[in-house]
């Protein structure tokens, strides 16, 4: 990783496209805010610590990786913690457990071997499945509770419809800083609604507190929440995000590796969880969101990190009331946009966008799909598509990355059985005939 080259890339990109970089930095708030608020309201995490440490991690990852790499909640842990109202010790134990597993998986070299062995159609399936899951989650949670005029004048279906129609225009007018405009509008509405209920944030300096999980916290956090997070983090937050970064930003001077991303995930949680912060990771959905809204370098998340750090240090827990009133109509549409961007990566499965194809051909990824498509027969294209869709279908249906991964792997192996049988048959016949096959 060339830090000088990465820093030069960040500065150059921000100088030329600072509006797009700032807009893109806000693209993942639709996922971050609802989960952080829900956990803070239940006193499961400290909102101030979450903002401060996620801000620091944003800054460091932006400087180190040079791409708009998100810092997202660990969703499987968050879902269990919200449903069961975990205390701070239990959720900290869950985050530390996952960090320890990822670190062990990485330093032993198992992660690299595992990543290299996964067929590209399965990785594409995980990415597409994650995108569809975002769209479904946004529709069923953030947007389903809205009516045409409620819950408030600033948060209803009318605003969701307006935000969605505006989103469609950005397909033609890509220079519109959509996420920045939506964030400022939502913040204005939240301030007005908070002022009406006398719940505006106040100056409250951060007072760090430490979280030391007890034996019961370790048992509950690790087994009930941590175990379920491991496949999601490994597949979506490490392997899928590395492939997505190379798909979206093929010309980046220093693309991230699975080892670097995994060590980053482990380090973030080994630090933040002791201070009551929310367990975090890097997700492909967040990267797709920030890319969709204009981010192209690490400067975008550095900007976001500085913003989080400042408000966490000086406003902290008093922000809960304001953030709770941020319109879910606007957040929901931003999540849908992120999901659509992530789903779109499946389009390149049978073209030069799939690295296993152009690597096999000995060509660079800059070739257009038509130049490389003839390498695949119709049967091969159909098989790759089937493996991807089996992965997508089972991932979405069971709401579990591990289930989708295993289903896709079984489908891939099923297609390999005839070739395997043929190789065994040829080897057997060769041995009977006294011919040795190398």
Q: What can be said about the biggest beta sheet?
A: 2 strands, antiparallel
Q: Tally the helices: what do you get? A: 20
In total, how many beta strands? 2
Low-confidence blocks of residues: 363-373
Write down the domain tally.
2
Oligomer: single chain
Strand coverage percent:
under 5%
| Alpha carbon gap, first and last residue | 39 Å
Class of secondary structure makeup? mainly alpha
The radius of gyration is 23 Å
What fraction, in percent, of the residue positions are helical?
over 70%
Using the alpha-carbon principal axes, give the shape. Answer: globular
| Order of strands, widest sheet | 1-2
- Overall mean pLDDT: 86
Order of helices and strands: HHHHEHHHHHHHHEHHHHHHHH
Task: Compose a concise summary of this entry.
With 438 residues, this protein is an all-alpha fold. The protein has helices at residues 3-16, 18-25, 29-41, 47-65, 75-84, 88-107, 110-117, 120-142, 157-169, 178-196, 215-248, 258-272, 284-292, 298-314, 320-324, 328-343, 355-361, 369-372, 378-398, 401-432; strands at 72-73, 280-281. One of its GO terms (molecular function) is molybdate ion transmembrane transporter activity.
Please give a structural write-up.
The protein has 438 residues and is mostly helical. It folds into two domains: 3-346, no CATH class; 349-432, no CATH class. It has 20 helices and two strands. A two-stranded antiparallel ribbon has the order 1-2. Mean pLDDT is 86; it is low at 363-373. Keywords: Membrane, Transmembrane, Transmembrane helix.
């Amino acid at each position: 990783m060339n830090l000088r080259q990465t820093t030069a890339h960040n500065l150059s990109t921000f100088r030329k496209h600072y509006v797009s970089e700032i807009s893109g930095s806000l693209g993942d708030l639709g996922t971050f805010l609802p989960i952080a608020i829900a956990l803070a309201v239940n006193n499961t995490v400290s909102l101030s610590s979450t903002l401060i440490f996620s801000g620091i991690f944003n800054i460091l990852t932006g400087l180190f990786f040079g791409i708009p790499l998100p810092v997202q909640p660990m969703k499987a842990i968050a879902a269990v913690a919200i449903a069961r109202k975990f205390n701070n010790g239990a959720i900290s134990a869950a985050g530390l457990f996952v960090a320890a597993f990822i670190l062990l998986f990485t330093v032993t070299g198992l992660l690299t071997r595992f990543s290299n062995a996964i067929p590209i159609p399965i990785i594409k399936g995980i990415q597409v499945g994650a995108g569809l899951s975002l769209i479904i989650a946004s529709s069923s949670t953030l947007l389903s509770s809205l009516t045409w005029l409620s819950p408030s004048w600033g948060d209803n279906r009318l605003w969701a419809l307006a935000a969605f129609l505006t989103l469609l225009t950005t397909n033609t007018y890509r220079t519109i800083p959509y996420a920045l405009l939506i964030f400022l509008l939502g913040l204005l509405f939240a301030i007005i609604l908070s002022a009406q209920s006398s719940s505006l944030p106040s100056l409250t300096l951060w007072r760090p507190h430490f979280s030391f999980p007890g034996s019961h916290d370790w048992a509950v956090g690790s087994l009930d929440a941590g175990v379920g997070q491991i496949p999601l983090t490994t597949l979506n937050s490490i392997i899928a995000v590395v492939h997505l970064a190379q798909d979206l930003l093929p010309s980046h001077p220093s693309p991230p590796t699975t080892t670097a991303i995994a060590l980053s995930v482990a380090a973030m949680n080994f630090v933040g969880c002791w201070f009551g912060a929310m367990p975090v990771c890097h997700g492909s959905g967040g990267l797709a969101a920030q890319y969709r809204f204009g981010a192209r370098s690490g400067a975008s998340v550095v900007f976001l990190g500085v913003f989080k750090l400042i408000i966490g240090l000086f406003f902290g827990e008093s922000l809960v009331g304001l953030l709770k009133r941020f319109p879910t109509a606007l957040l929901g549409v931003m999540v849908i946009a992120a999901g659509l961007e992530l789903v779109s990566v499946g389009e390149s499965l049978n073209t030069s966008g799939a690295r296993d194809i152009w690597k096999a051909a000995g060509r660079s990824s800059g070739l257009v799909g038509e130049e490389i498509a003839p390498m695949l027969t119709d049967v091969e294209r159909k098989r790759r598509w089937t493996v991807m869709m089996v992965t997508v279908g089972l991932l979405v249906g069971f709401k579990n990355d591990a289930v989708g991964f295993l289903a896709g792997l079984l489908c891939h192996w099923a297609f390999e059985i005839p070739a395997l049988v043929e190789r065994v048959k040829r080897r057997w016949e060769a041995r009977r005939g006294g011919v040795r096959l190398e």
